Protein backbone atom coordinates (compact mmCIF):
# COMPACT_ATOMS: atom_id res chain seq x y z
CA UNK A 1 0.00 0.00 0.00
CA UNK A 2 2.86 2.43 0.79
CA UNK A 3 4.30 2.10 -2.73
CA UNK A 4 0.95 3.01 -4.31
CA UNK A 5 0.70 6.14 -2.18
CA UNK A 6 4.28 7.11 -3.01
CA UNK A 7 3.61 6.74 -6.76
CA UNK A 8 0.37 8.74 -6.48
CA UNK A 9 2.18 11.57 -4.68
CA UNK A 10 4.99 11.55 -7.25
CA UNK A 11 2.48 11.60 -10.12
CA UNK A 12 0.62 14.53 -8.51
CA UNK A 13 3.91 16.42 -8.01
CA UNK A 14 4.89 15.93 -11.67
CA UNK A 15 1.44 17.01 -12.86
CA UNK A 16 1.41 20.12 -10.65
CA UNK A 17 4.97 21.01 -11.70
CA UNK A 18 3.96 20.76 -15.35
CA UNK A 19 0.98 23.07 -14.75
CA UNK A 20 3.14 25.60 -12.91
CA UNK A 21 5.72 25.59 -15.70
CA UNK A 22 3.09 26.99 -18.06
CA UNK A 23 3.27 30.24 -16.09
CA UNK A 24 7.05 30.50 -16.41
CA UNK A 25 8.33 33.19 -18.81
CA UNK A 26 8.83 32.09 -22.40
CA UNK A 27 10.95 35.19 -22.98
CA UNK A 28 12.91 37.89 -21.24
CA UNK A 29 13.45 41.47 -22.33
CA UNK A 30 16.21 43.97 -21.71
CA UNK A 31 15.82 46.93 -19.44
CA UNK A 32 16.38 48.96 -22.59
CA UNK A 33 13.21 47.37 -24.06
CA UNK A 34 11.37 48.47 -20.90
CA UNK A 35 12.64 52.01 -21.37
CA UNK A 36 11.10 52.01 -24.86
CA UNK A 37 7.69 51.18 -23.39
CA UNK A 38 7.52 47.40 -23.69
CA UNK A 39 5.69 46.25 -20.55
CA UNK A 40 4.59 42.70 -21.46
CA UNK A 41 6.27 39.32 -21.88
CA UNK A 42 4.83 36.04 -23.08
CA UNK A 43 4.50 33.06 -20.73
CA UNK A 44 4.75 29.40 -21.80
CA UNK A 45 0.95 29.21 -21.46
CA UNK A 46 0.62 31.80 -24.23
CA UNK A 47 -0.70 34.39 -21.76
CA UNK A 48 0.91 37.77 -21.36
CA UNK A 49 2.46 39.04 -18.12
CA UNK A 50 2.42 42.80 -17.51
CA UNK A 51 5.12 44.56 -15.52
CA UNK A 52 3.91 47.15 -13.02
CA UNK A 53 4.58 50.69 -14.24
CA UNK A 54 5.77 51.89 -10.83
CA UNK A 55 8.19 48.99 -10.47
CA UNK A 56 9.51 49.63 -13.99
CA UNK A 57 10.00 53.30 -13.13
CA UNK A 58 11.97 52.42 -9.97
CA UNK A 59 14.09 49.93 -11.94
CA UNK A 60 14.89 52.48 -14.65
CA UNK A 61 15.73 55.06 -12.00
CA UNK A 62 18.27 52.92 -10.13
CA UNK A 63 19.87 51.20 -13.14
CA UNK A 64 22.69 53.05 -14.91
CA UNK A 65 21.89 53.38 -18.62
CA UNK A 66 25.06 51.52 -19.65
CA UNK A 67 23.53 48.36 -18.09
CA UNK A 68 20.17 48.64 -19.85
CA UNK A 69 21.10 46.41 -22.81
CA UNK A 70 22.90 43.87 -20.60
CA UNK A 71 20.36 43.16 -17.84
CA UNK A 72 17.15 41.28 -18.60
CA UNK A 73 13.72 41.18 -16.97
CA UNK A 74 12.10 39.27 -15.37
CA UNK A 75 14.59 38.14 -12.77
CA UNK A 76 14.09 34.38 -12.46
CA UNK A 77 14.85 32.52 -9.23
CA UNK A 78 14.90 28.83 -8.32
CA UNK A 79 13.78 27.92 -4.76
CA UNK A 80 15.54 25.04 -2.99
CA UNK A 81 16.33 23.71 0.47
CA UNK A 82 19.82 22.73 1.52
CA UNK A 83 20.44 19.54 3.47
CA UNK A 84 20.48 21.49 6.75
CA UNK A 85 17.02 22.88 5.95
CA UNK A 86 18.20 26.35 4.97
CA UNK A 87 16.09 27.89 2.22
CA UNK A 88 17.96 29.49 -0.70
CA UNK A 89 16.96 31.00 -3.99
CA UNK A 90 19.43 30.77 -6.85
CA UNK A 91 19.42 33.37 -9.60
CA UNK A 92 18.80 31.79 -13.01
CA UNK A 93 20.91 33.03 -15.90
CA UNK A 94 24.38 34.44 -16.08
CA UNK A 95 26.42 37.02 -14.27
CA UNK A 96 24.30 39.93 -15.53
CA UNK A 97 21.23 38.45 -13.86
CA UNK A 98 23.20 38.01 -10.62
CA UNK A 99 24.26 41.65 -10.91
CA UNK A 100 20.65 42.68 -11.49
CA UNK A 101 19.60 40.83 -8.31
CA UNK A 102 22.29 42.68 -6.37
CA UNK A 103 21.29 46.02 -7.90
CA UNK A 104 17.62 45.50 -7.00
CA UNK A 105 18.54 44.59 -3.41
CA UNK A 106 21.40 46.95 -2.61
CA UNK A 107 21.43 49.61 -5.33
CA UNK A 108 25.00 48.61 -6.18
CA UNK A 109 26.65 46.20 -8.63
CA UNK A 110 29.76 44.09 -8.01
CA UNK A 111 31.67 41.98 -10.52
CA UNK A 112 30.06 38.72 -9.32
CA UNK A 113 26.60 39.94 -8.30
CA UNK A 114 24.33 37.82 -6.07
CA UNK A 115 24.00 34.24 -7.31
CA UNK A 116 22.05 33.05 -4.26
CA UNK A 117 19.55 34.89 -2.11
CA UNK A 118 18.49 34.20 1.45
CA UNK A 119 14.82 34.09 2.32
CA UNK A 120 15.13 37.56 3.88
CA UNK A 121 16.71 38.97 0.72
CA UNK A 122 13.98 37.36 -1.36
CA UNK A 123 11.26 38.87 0.84
CA UNK A 124 12.84 42.31 0.48
CA UNK A 125 13.12 41.87 -3.30
CA UNK A 126 9.53 40.81 -3.93
CA UNK A 127 8.13 43.42 -1.57
CA UNK A 128 9.58 46.05 -3.95
CA UNK A 129 9.40 44.30 -7.33
CA UNK A 130 6.51 41.78 -7.36
CA UNK A 131 5.96 41.78 -11.12
CA UNK A 132 9.64 41.76 -12.10
CA UNK A 133 10.51 38.49 -10.32
CA UNK A 134 9.49 34.88 -11.07
CA UNK A 135 10.19 31.90 -8.79
CA UNK A 136 10.15 28.18 -9.51
CA UNK A 137 10.88 25.10 -7.41
CA UNK A 138 14.14 23.19 -7.79
CA UNK A 139 13.60 19.78 -9.33
Outline the fold blueprint.
Blueprint: H1 2-21, E1 29-30, H2 31-35, E2 40-42, E3 48-50, H3 53-62, E4 72-73, E5 75-81, E6 87-91, H4 95-106, E7 116-118, H5 119-128, E8 133-137
Parallel strand pairs: 5-8
Antiparallel strand pairs: 1-4, 2-3, 5-6, 6-7
Notes on the structure:
The protein has 139 residues and is of the alpha+beta class. The chain has one domain (2-137). Helices cover 41% and strands 22% of the residues. It has 5 helices and 8 strands. It has helices at 2-21, 31-35, 53-62, 95-106, 119-128, and strands at 29-30, 40-42, 48-50, 72-73, 75-81, 87-91, 116-118, 133-137. The chain starts with a helix and ends with a strand. The mean pLDDT is 90.
Write a compact overview of the structure shown.
By secondary structure, the protein is of the alpha+beta class. It has one domain (2-137). Helix content is 41%, strand content 22%.
Features:
22% strand; alpha+beta; 5 helices; four-stranded mixed beta sheet; 139 residues
Topology, number of strands? 8
Radius of gyration: 17 Å
Q: What is the number of helical segments per DSSP (H or I, 4+ residues)?
A: 5
- The termini sit apart by 26 Å
- Silhouette: globular
Q: Kindly estimate the percentage of residues that lie in beta strands according to DSSP.
A: 15-25%
How many discrete domains? Answer: 1
Flag low-confidence runs.
Answer: none
Average pLDDT, rounded to a whole number, is: 90
The largest pleated sheet is described as: 4 strands, mixed
Strands ordered across the widest β-sheet: 7-6-5-8
**What's the order of the H and E elements?**
HEHEEHEEEHEHE
- What structural class do you assign from the helix and strand content? alpha+beta
Helix percent reads 40-55%
Amino acid sequence: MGEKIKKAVERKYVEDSRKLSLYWPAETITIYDLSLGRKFIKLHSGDLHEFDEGEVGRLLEITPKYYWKLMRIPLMLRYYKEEDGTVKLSVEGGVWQARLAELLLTGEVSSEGLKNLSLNQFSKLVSRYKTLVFVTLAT
